[in-house]
Design a protein that fits this description.
By secondary structure, the chain is α/β, with parallel strands linked by helices. It has a single domain, classed as Vaccinia Virus protein VP39 (Rossmann fold). It is 36% helix and 19% strand. It is built from 8 helices and 7 strands, in the order H-H-E-E-E-E-H-E-H-H-E-H-E-H-H. The chain has helices at residues 8-20, 22-39, 109-119, 136-146, 160-170, 189-204, 228-235, 253-257, and strands at 46-51, 66-71, 80-81, 94-100, 120-131, 172-180, 212-219. Strands 3-2-1-4-5-7-6 form a 7-stranded mixed sheet, sandwiched between helices.
């Protein structure tokens, strides 16, 4: 099972080029804001980000000290090459996995999500950033895909309802869905600034029509994942064991005062 659909090198380069434009830079800034907000109350030690691009790490300001950024192509901030849907980690070893537009371009998105669920620790989190097909921007992407525009014709639109069902079947409970990029800024500087202000207002009120959504789910069960011993027999001893002592979050000021 390949991690990325089609030619991973072409898709990586094309997405990186798009993110370098004004709209892409604005979007990543919004995604960074969302990630910081969703990770603010998440405790743990290990964070794994899976993506297609190589220079868009999220969660840099989070309290999770050990961050691993993985993609199919090396370079940029990537510390782990992962072309396969079989992640080289032990079961229940990662506190948070962030999927940055990885599902849309995966050869087998449901299989990738199952693999992510396997490596996430019980009570750990799966965070998915994806393009919203039920939005003006999502409609734009589907039209581009229909005309063979790369890399969008290699993507698989994934609605929030569909992703929520997949996560529920795996035993993960969705607790937060946030939207951004409701009005993609376009045009000259004056129009761009006005659209940015309007988009910021809609994002703050979480209007569910954003071109991108962030969904956070917590792993509640491990009944659908293979046992540790069984998995090790399948892939040998090449798994990365991240087990070990994890920091305990400091008590909040309000707790001390109480």
């Amino acid at each position: 099972m390949r991690f990325v659909r089609g030619n991973s090198i072409d898709i990586c380069q094309q997405l990186e080029t798009w993110f370098q434009g004004p709209g892409g830079q604005y979007l990543f800034a919004e995604e960074t804001r969302l990630a910081d907000s969703l990770l603010e109350q998440v405790f743990g030690y290990h964070l794994l980000q899976l993506g297609v691009t190589r220079s868009h790490p999220l969660g840099l300001d989070s309290g999770l000290n050990h961050k691993i950024y993985a993609a199919a192509q090396g370079g940029g901030d990537i510390g782990l090459l992962s072309e396969s849907g079989q992640l080289p980690f032990e079961n229940d070893s990662i506190d948070v996995v962030v999927l940055h537009h990885a599902l849309e371009f995966a050869d087998d998105p449901h299989g990738l999500l199952r693999e992510v669920h396997r490596v996430v620790a019980p009570q750990g989190y799966i965070m998915v950033f994806a393009f919203n097909p039920l939005s003006l921007f999502g409609l734009n992407l589907r039209l581009r895909a229909a005309f063979g525009n790369q890399p969008w014709c290699d993507s698989l639109p994934l609605s929030t309802a569909r992703l929520r069902d997949w996560l529920h079947l795996l035993g993960a409970q969705v607790d937060v869905v946030r939207h951004c990029y409701e009005l993609p800024p376009l045009g000259g500087e004056a129009i761009f600034n006005k659209l940015s202000a309007a988009d910021g207002y809609l994002a703050r009120h979480n209007v569910p029509c954003g071109g991108v959504y962030a969904m956070r789910a917590q792993k509640k069960t491990t009944t659908l994942t293979p046992t540790r011993a069984r998995w090790k027999r399948r892939v040998g001893s090449s798994l990365i064991d991240l087990a070990g002592a994890k920091p305990v979050p400091s008590p909040c000021k309000s707790d001390i005062a109480a």
